[in-house]
């Protein structure tokens, strides 16, 4: 008979402390989703997974909607996501108190809605969303490296795919970090970095907005009536994806029991950062550049390959952005790592036994190599990721939490809570469909500029 590894014993002991019956954990839950963190660690993980460089696209989203609708959408998205993540946390706490702690989004869907929902709906959607985020982050990392290179060597000849490959090699090494909990210190640094580059982007926009080189401030919405409508839905997809997470259950799984109340504290830490960064970047960027705001506000800081800011400021901003992209990529690799670990590792022996280390090394490396290859081949992946966001972020972050709460707690149909949750789920289901249509349409419009390994 093989001996029970210490982690298995500790997991069982932790569940007994929480008043639950111990149950055997698979390798993915045991090795990747270790339940050892505090509420503060949870706040770091949440901040990294939500406050990412995608927030630099918020001025562009506002340019598609205008001041009133744009700021209103930001406020609604912030309120609804904070509310929905809190509902998810309450459902997870409820099941933990019943002795059925759910460690993954698909576990929630399976236990609450049925086996098919977890296996055929939530599981594939979450995997696609997270792996798509990894590809997008590797591409963004390559673009940040290229921006730094061109600031240092304006006449440099290196191509984007080369920088993507360099960033991919870095991620190949860091992907071997064993568990989500192991990222807590990296994600603390990530929190500081996102505050830093957001401050740089905000102050840069204000500086340019008041400078003699300030662009003409035009806040009208460009295009025909049809294009404006589709642009608005595309902006909603961008904002939803920016606020999206898709891995709240996996983050809550890293908290040591008892879990009650800890997630709410972590959410408060996260949303203090969300409000201070999202709104400052979005409003200052749109104020400075109006309807000329580009896909990322940093692109507006350059005109005809000349910086509108001191070069060192732009260089510092790109370094901060690049550094945080590393942490974001690692966070969104965790669901993939968990699936691979569950499939190929043996939970009955030590996590660092050769039997487990070799498959981990092979399959995590293969996962990063595939993502890097896709990022290098399709540098227009941002358009594709908008579709993934519409099909992934909106169901996971704006719809399912309401459904899970109503099914689990069964609030009275004569009360406000049931109908508020139902209304939110219905509205965002419709917006998800419309956002997906507008994102697909945008791919069609941009298709003429697509080619493999483009040097964008």
TrEMBL record:
Output the Gene Ontology cellular-component terms: endomembrane system
Key word Phosphoprotein present in the record?
no
Q: Where in the cell is it found?
A: Endomembrane system
GO MF annotation terms: symporter activity
Q: How does the UniProt record describe the way this protein sits in the membrane?
A: Multi-pass membrane protein
Top-level taxon of the source organism: Eukaryota
Q: Which UniProt keywords apply?
A: Amino-acid transport, Auxin signaling pathway, Membrane, Symport, Transmembrane, Transmembrane helix, Transport
Entry's transmembrane regions: 67-92, 120-141, 161-181, 188-210, 230-248, 269-289, 309-333, 361-381, 387-405, 417-440
Specify the Amino acid transporter transmembrane domain's residue ranges.
36-441
Q: Which GO terms describe its biological process?
A: amino acid transport; auxin-activated signaling pathway
State its role.
Carrier protein involved in proton-driven auxin influx. Mediates the formation of auxin gradient from developing leaves (site of auxin biosynthesis) to tips by contributing to the loading of auxin in vascular tissues and facilitating acropetal (base to tip) auxin transport within inner tissues of the root apex, and basipetal (tip to base) auxin transport within outer tissues of the root apex. May be involved in lateral roots and nodules formation.
Q: Which family does it belong to?
A: Belongs to the amino acid/polyamine transporter 2 family. Amino acid/auxin permease (AAAP) (TC 2.A.18.1) subfamily.
The protein, known as = Amino acid transporter transmembrane domain-containing protein
Q: Organism, per UniProt?
A: Castanea mollissima
Lineage of producing organism:
Eukaryota, Viridiplantae, Streptophyta, Embryophyta, Tracheophyta
